[in-house]
């Protein structure tokens, strides 16, 4: 294993450059927020009431609210890890179409997660507001943490969608930019001819002089055989 000789070598390493990318930083923050959301409600989100031993969700005793937060947080965490791994191996992706498809999928999922966390924040905050005070002895701080980081996750995923859209625009293939080696054909951007540089296109009509000369060229260039002339005897 290569050990950097100085801090400058460490700063210039590929791992540090990868971690300094804005997309990587946002994915790490999104993963940490998702981890806090589902872990806080998974550990302390289900408590028993003072008069019962049955476990209930601390958010208005609505088990659907805790299940939604735990499930969405877990899926978002796995999504962040998956795309972090894909970003780390981005240089090894050779196909342009496959890379474009991944960028499009990244944008769609980021926009989808932004909408999910917006709905989730509103849902969790509403259930928290309707929860009776002092109904549970524990779990109040876990519910507040889940709601808070669900709110922050909205902006994190919006920024991720913006960066994915920028990458999609920058790496999208442009028309007339590709060269074709077959037949020596090169496609370039078409531009109308200007008045200062007219393009002389040869005419092939029957009234053109070149057309007439080319049509009569076989008769003009073919040599004629010599004629024998009979001379009268003197």
Report the radius of gyration as a whole number of Å: 37 Å
Structural class: mainly alpha
Overall pLDDT metric: 75
Q: Sum up the overall morphology in one term.
A: elongated
Quaternary: single chain
Number of helices: 7
**How much helicity do the residues have?**
55-70%
Strand adjacency order, main sheet = 1-2
Largest sheet entry: 2 strands, antiparallel
Q: What distance separates the N and C termini?
A: 117 Å
**How many strand units?**
2
- Give start-end ranges of low-pLDDT stretches: 174-191, 197-201, 209-221
- Binned strand content: under 5%
Give me the strand/helix succession. HHHEEHHHH
Features:
single chain, 234 residues, mainly alpha, two-stranded antiparallel sheet, 2 strands, elongated
Please give a quick description of this structure.
The chain is mostly helical. The protein has 7 helices and 2 strands; from the N terminus they run αααββαααα. Strand 1 and strand 2 form a beta hairpin.
Indicate the topology.
Blueprint: H1 7-11, H2 14-19, H3 22-44, E1 46-48, E2 55-57, H4 63-88, H5 96-129, H6 140-170, H7 209-221
Antiparallel strand pairs: 1-2
Q: Could you explain the architecture of this structure?
A:
- The chain is mainly α.
- Helices cover 59% and strands 3% of the residues.
- It has 7 helices and 2 strands.
- It has a two-stranded antiparallel sheet.
- A hairpin with a 6-residue loop joins strand 1 and strand 2.
- Helix 3 packs antiparallel against helix 4 and helix 3 packs antiparallel against helix 6.
- It is elongated.
- The N and C termini lie far apart (117 Å).
